[in-house]
């Protein structure tokens, strides 16, 4: 735990560029930030939080022009951005095809959640690291969001290399999330900014709930496969070698980082079916298994 200073920001930026997650205050809650262009770095967020599934994460950028490199901003979204950024507003926008984001950040969705935070420590880290930062709240999955460095310490201490301490956060609840679809705006999460938008029914669970269907491969997917059957593309792990491997050494961080890319690859391969090797049900393996179960689920 380090009080925020120029030296502390430099150290944090070095860790970010080296692919490590760092806890950093925003005006809403403390976030666990990692380089959004680096799949391994983002997988380490999930590993540290023990998050049971791959929800898409919010990508933090220093200003509107940085946001424009990652996403399309239709006029109504741009107007909101100009009014509320920097601040506790997140916009879910169509992701640009050339955005250099790791696919694990958006969990394979064609959209990306973007926010320009106003906290000076987060602003300083964004500028010093020069990277867009994926950051969920800096707490173990299922526990209460952290508004002080001490909360982060209690929840994640020992699992992350650095916690920047700038005292209690000002806002304390997570940002308002607005989904943007052309000129249509929908409230996806209530938060500090009240835009007078109705909370559209069912939209709250849109991202995590629809992930499975969105991400489901077009071919049958068999789990717990120890060898390929005829006509199957096998994604290996550890000792199970396949057409490609999530991690030949059995490293779950590496496997999580590669998961979405290899599912895409298997789906595009010239085979009728695909299969995935057993993944151990522990740590990050739980999140990987959760995603695989959803991807393998056929029918509605
Ligand atoms: O205030 C905040 O927003 C904090 C600070 C650290 O910035 N961050 C935060 O992140 O609350 P997180 O990961 O806990 O919340 C992200 C939410 C999730 O509910 C997720 O489903 C939604 O944003 N989300 C992210 N990307 C999305 C997308 N492409 N489409 C729909 N929802 C998305
Ligand atoms: Mg959270």
TrEMBL record:
<feature type="domain" description="YrdC-like">
    <location>
        <begin position="6"/>
        <end position="193"/>
    </location>
</feature>
<dbReference type="InterPro" id="IPR010923">
    <property type="entry name" value="T(6)A37_SUA5"/>
</dbReference>
<keyword id="KW-0808">Transferase</keyword>
<feature type="binding site">
    <location>
        <position position="189"/>
    </location>
    <ligand>
        <name>ATP</name>
    </ligand>
</feature>
<feature type="binding site">
    <location>
        <position position="115"/>
    </location>
    <ligand>
        <name>L-threonine</name>
    </ligand>
</feature>
<comment type="similarity">
    <text>Belongs to the SUA5 family.</text>
</comment>
<feature type="binding site">
    <location>
        <position position="60"/>
    </location>
    <ligand>
        <name>L-threonine</name>
    </ligand>
</feature>
<dbReference type="GO" id="GO:0006450">
    <property type="term" value="P:regulation of translational fidelity"/>
</dbReference>
<dbReference type="InterPro" id="IPR006070">
    <property type="entry name" value="Sua5-like_dom"/>
</dbReference>
<feature type="binding site">
    <location>
        <position position="137"/>
    </location>
    <ligand>
        <name>ATP</name>
    </ligand>
</feature>
<feature type="binding site">
    <location>
        <position position="111"/>
    </location>
    <ligand>
        <name>ATP</name>
    </ligand>
</feature>
<dbReference type="GO" id="GO:0008033">
    <property type="term" value="P:tRNA processing"/>
</dbReference>
<feature type="binding site">
    <location>
        <position position="175"/>
    </location>
    <ligand>
        <name>L-threonine</name>
    </ligand>
</feature>
<dbReference type="GO" id="GO:0003725">
    <property type="term" value="F:double-stranded RNA binding"/>
</dbReference>
<dbReference type="GO" id="GO:0005524">
    <property type="term" value="F:ATP binding"/>
</dbReference>
<feature type="binding site">
    <location>
        <position position="145"/>
    </location>
    <ligand>
        <name>ATP</name>
    </ligand>
</feature>
<dbReference type="InterPro" id="IPR050156">
    <property type="entry name" value="TC-AMP_synthase_SUA5"/>
</dbReference>
<keyword id="KW-0819">tRNA processing</keyword>
<dbReference type="InterPro" id="IPR017945">
    <property type="entry name" value="DHBP_synth_RibB-like_a/b_dom"/>
</dbReference>
<dbReference type="GO" id="GO:0000049">
    <property type="term" value="F:tRNA binding"/>
</dbReference>
<feature type="binding site">
    <location>
        <position position="55"/>
    </location>
    <ligand>
        <name>ATP</name>
    </ligand>
</feature>
<dbReference type="GO" id="GO:0061710">
    <property type="term" value="F:L-threonylcarbamoyladenylate synthase"/>
</dbReference>
<feature type="binding site">
    <location>
        <position position="51"/>
    </location>
    <ligand>
        <name>ATP</name>
    </ligand>
</feature>
<keyword id="KW-0067">ATP-binding</keyword>
<dbReference type="InterPro" id="IPR038385">
    <property type="entry name" value="Sua5/YwlC_C"/>
</dbReference>
<dbReference type="InterPro" id="IPR005145">
    <property type="entry name" value="Sua5_C"/>
</dbReference>
<protein>
    <recommendedName>
        <fullName>Threonylcarbamoyl-AMP synthase</fullName>
        <ecNumber>2.7.7.87</ecNumber>
    </recommendedName>
</protein>
<keyword id="KW-0548">Nucleotidyltransferase</keyword>
<dbReference type="Pfam" id="PF03481">
    <property type="entry name" value="Sua5_C"/>
</dbReference>
<feature type="binding site">
    <location>
        <position position="135"/>
    </location>
    <ligand>
        <name>L-threonine</name>
    </ligand>
</feature>
<dbReference type="Pfam" id="PF01300">
    <property type="entry name" value="Sua5_yciO_yrdC"/>
</dbReference>
<feature type="binding site">
    <location>
        <position position="28"/>
    </location>
    <ligand>
        <name>L-threonine</name>
    </ligand>
</feature>
<feature type="binding site">
    <location>
        <position position="215"/>
    </location>
    <ligand>
        <name>ATP</name>
    </ligand>
</feature>
<dbReference type="GO" id="GO:0005737">
    <property type="term" value="C:cytoplasm"/>
</dbReference>
<keyword id="KW-0547">Nucleotide-binding</keyword>
<keyword id="KW-0963">Cytoplasm</keyword>
<comment type="function">
    <text>Required for the formation of a threonylcarbamoyl group on adenosine at position 37 (t(6)A37) in tRNAs that read codons beginning with adenine.</text>
</comment>
């Amino acid at each position: 735990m380090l009080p925020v200073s120029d030296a502390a920001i430099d150290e944090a930026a070095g860790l970010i560029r080296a692919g490590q997650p760092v806890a950093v205050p925003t005006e809403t809650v403390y976030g666990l930030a990692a380089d959004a262009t680096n799949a391994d770095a983002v997988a380490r967020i999930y590993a540290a939080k023990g998050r049971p599934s791959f929800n898409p994460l919010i990508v933090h950028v220093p200003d509107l022009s940085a946001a424009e490199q990652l996403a399309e901003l239709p006029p109504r979204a741009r107007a909101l951005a100009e009014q509320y950024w920097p601040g506790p507003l997140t916009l879910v926008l169509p992701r640009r095809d050339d955005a250099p984001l790791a696919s694990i950040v958006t969990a394979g969705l064609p959209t990306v959640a973007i926010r320009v935070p106003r906290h000076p420590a987060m602003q300083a880290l964004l500028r010093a690291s020069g990277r867009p930062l994926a950051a969920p709240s800096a707490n173990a999955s299922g526990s209460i969001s952290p508004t002080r460095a001490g909360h982060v310490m209690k929840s994640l201490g020992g699992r992350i290399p650095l916690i920047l301490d700038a005292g209690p956060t000002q806002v304390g609840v997570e940002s308002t999330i607005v989904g943007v679809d052309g000129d249509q705006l929908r409230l996806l999460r209530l938060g500090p900014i009240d835009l007078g938008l109705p909370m559209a029914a069912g939209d709250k669970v849109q991202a995590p709930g629809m992930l499975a269907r969105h991400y489901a491969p077009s071919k049958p997917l068999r789990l717990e496969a120890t060898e390929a059957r005829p006509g199957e593309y096998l994604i290996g792990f550890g000792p199970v070698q396949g057409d490609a491997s999530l991690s030949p050494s059995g490293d779950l961080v590496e496997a999580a980082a590669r998961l979405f890319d290899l599912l895409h690859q298997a789906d595009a391969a010239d085979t009728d079916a695909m299969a995935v090797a057993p993944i151990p049900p522990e740590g990050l393996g739980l999140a990987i298994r959760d995603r695989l179960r959803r991807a393998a689920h056929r029918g509605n």
